[in-house]
Design goal:
The protein has one domain: Glutaredoxin (3-Layer(aba) Sandwich), CATH 3.40.30.10. The longest helix has 17 residues. By secondary structure, it is of the alpha+beta class. The chain is globular and about 30 Å long. A 4-stranded mixed β-sheet has the order 2-1-3-4. Helix 1 packs across helix 3. It contains 3 helices and 4 strands, in the order βαβαββα.
Length: 76
Amino acid sequence: MKIQILGTGCPKCKQVEANAREAVKNLNIEAVIEKVTDINRIIDFGIIATPALAVDGDVKFSGRIPSVEEIERIIR
């Protein structure tokens, strides 16, 4: 599984990454977590607001910080 955090590195983006890492740890699953900060790559995902989180290339959250529990639900 590949989890991508889309954003420029702002505090909100860092919180999304921290929540994603905690969700992966809580579920004891293997996942690659990638930070995507290149604006052109972010635009390619078709989002208009960051931070965003994608799982295997599919955007699941955009424009807000999902909780650890929300992330756990989508990666189960």
